[in-house]
Amino acid sequence: MEVQGVRMKEGEDETSYAKNSLMQKNIILASRKMVKQAILDLYCTTFPEKLNIVDLGCSTGPNALLAISEIMDIVDQKRHELGYNPVQFQCFLNDLLWNDFNTVFKALPGFHKKRLEKDPKGSPSFVVGVPGSFYGRLFPDKSLDFIVSSSSLHWLSQVPCGLESGVKNHLNRGKISISKTSSSRVFSCYSEQFQRDFSAFITSRSKEIVIGGRMVLSLFGRKAANPTEEENCYPLDCLANALMDMASEGLVEEERIDSYNIPFYAPWSGEVMNVIHEDGTFAVDRLEIVEVEVVTIKSGCDDVMKGHQWAKNLRAVMEPMLADHFGREIMDDLFCRAGNHFNEFFSRRNPKGTCIVVSLVRKG
Ligand SMILES: C[S@@+](CC[C@H](N)C(=O)[O-])C[C@H]1O[C@@H](n2cnc3c(N)ncnc32)[C@H](O)[C@@H]1O
């Protein structure tokens, strides 16, 4: 069962993902070094005339074209240095069926124009959208050279088995994801779902990528095997606390919160490595844990802004999903309260996010 709920806020207004995805941009930039090394290794081994590249979970807004544009720039810079011919890039942008691809496609003429202005002798690129879940097959056998995916693989294909809203005995009362106080059963449900999904992802990509092809994945993760440390749980705990505040005032039914779990899981690097090793078709070139600023605030703004800024970012990612379950009418109130909870957290801790970046090579 695919979760139709996972979708970013469409369009380009002030509350859209397009206008509130700076943190995800920071994650793309944080994985830049590994992407550069991987694409240069690939290019300088075979000097291909064509490269098929894909961004899995591209979403919408400026980030959707950022990852592929960085890859093309790196290759072009290298081939200019070497005096080689342009490479023809076939760029695939993948996301779920209900993603706002229209906003991405509308940006394409400007994207091509900017590339041409920057480098009139740049390589040509042909961009197409590929709607569908990356937990299944999307491309023919051995048709891809380079795969990237940023800030997407922490989204599970479904609410973990045992935690779905129809299940009678709610295992995670008052919470909407793994929290500091969740039981080990809740943790296993999430962890097992991640392993099933990530394994399906790796198996599919293994068939689609050429031998020697490269894949760089970045996703939210954890440094420690223990998932219930405060740093890992605070974003969704703050959101759950805001919902519980509203329940205590009779604005939300508590049962609605008890029966709700978000299909989000930030794995430990060991879990990621286990799946890759078990599949056996990819060699791990590098794995890094990087800390990313979750809130980028202009200098001069005080800390009170931080919590509300972070709530705005989270709203662009979570509102469509939460509105389906709790109703659109409570969203302003909910995210305002969540902002207050974030402020309280940020007064004690530095708001950083932990990401796993892993660079893989398809074995022969
Ligand atoms: C937070 S956004 C990140 C988007 C973009 N890569 C960026 O860096 O800004 C996560 C994206 O992953 C997509 N996604 C989640 N699960 C997916 C799946 N199973 N298949 C394809 N895309 C998926 C979501 O729809 C969403 O657009």
Automatic annotation (TrEMBL):
InterPro entries the UniProt entry points to = MeTrfase_7, MeTrfase_capping, SAM-dependent_MTases_sf
Entries under Gene3D superfamilies matching the protein:
Methyltransferase, alpha-helical capping domain (1.10.1200.270), Vaccinia Virus protein VP39 (3.40.50.150)
Q: Does the keyword Magnesium apply?
A: yes
UniProt keyword Chloroplast present: no
Print the keywords alphabetically. Magnesium, Metal-binding
Top-rank taxon, per record? Eukaryota
Gene Ontology molecular functions: metal ion binding; methyltransferase activity
Q: What is this protein called?
A: Jasmonate O-methyltransferase
Q: Which organism does this sequence originate in?
A: Acorus gramineus (Dwarf sweet flag)
